[in-house]
Amino acid sequence: MSRESGAIQGFAIAWVEWDDGEKRPITTELLPFLELAYALTVPKAQGSQWPIVIVPITASRLLDRSLLYTAVTRAQHKLLLLGDEPAARMAVSRPPKSKRRHTALRHQSLSRTNATHHSFIITTSTIAREECSNLPRYPA
Predict the structure, then answer these.
(1) Distance CA 61, CA 23 (A)
(2) Which of 38, 62, 67, 90 has its CA 20 to 30 A from that of 9?
(3) Full pLDDT tens readout for the chain, 140 residues
(4) How do 23-27 and 50-57 pair as beta strands?
(5) What is the pLDDT of residue 118?
(6) How far apart are CA 140 and CA 119, in angstroms?
(7) Which domains are present in the chain?
(8) Beta strand pairing status for 23-27 and 12-17?
(9) Are 121 and 132 in contact (CB under 8 A)?
(10) How is 28-46 classified by DSSP, letter by letter?
(11) How far apart are CA 77 and CA 66, in angstroms?
């Protein structure tokens, strides 16, 4: 690779397309100035924190208030939100997806309670067995 002046600049080990659409080389001379970084999904990052967090935001059916909240609360010192501001505003203004989730769990639970089936408990310790001795057991 050479500069416009014709001088040899270095060997390009990778090319990066910047926001302005320009492709720029990563040379061996730049390696000491680069810092290794990791990318995780928001659910995978849950429960952890880092000094600096960069959150890319794009319009998606998965993007909602709770996902953004989890992403934002991973940052200890610095947070950078990059991307589609209208998508972020829309995600924050809508109710979380979990509010619209429908399952049959409640229906099944109620139908089992009203049915003639007996509840059972699975225990693993003798203390738990003694404390729950009045409840029917799961057959071994």
Answers:
(1) 31
(2) 38
(3) 555 655 556 688 989 888 898 998 988 888 888 888 788 888 888 888 989 899 999 999 889 888 899 999 999 999 999 999 999 999 888 877 766 666 666 666 555 555 544 444 443 444 444 444 554 444 54
(4) unpaired
(5) 45
(6) 15
(7) 1-34 (no CATH), 37-100 (3.40.50.300), 102-140 (no CATH)
(8) antiparallel
(9) yes
(10) GGGGGG--------HHHHT
(11) 20
Residues 60, 21: Cα–Cα separation, whole Å: 23
pLDDT of residue 85: 92
Half-sphere exposure of 46 (CA within 13 A, CB side): 8
Give the model's pLDDT for residue 45.
87
In whole angstroms, what is the distance from residue 55 CA to residue 29 CA? 29
Under 8 Å between Cβ of 98 and 66 = yes
Cα 54 from Cα 39, distance rounded (Å): 9
Q: Check: CB of residue 53 under 8 Å from CB of residue 74.
A: yes
SS3 8: strand
Segment holding 52, helix H or strand E: strand 50-57
Residue 23 host element (H or E):
strand 23-27
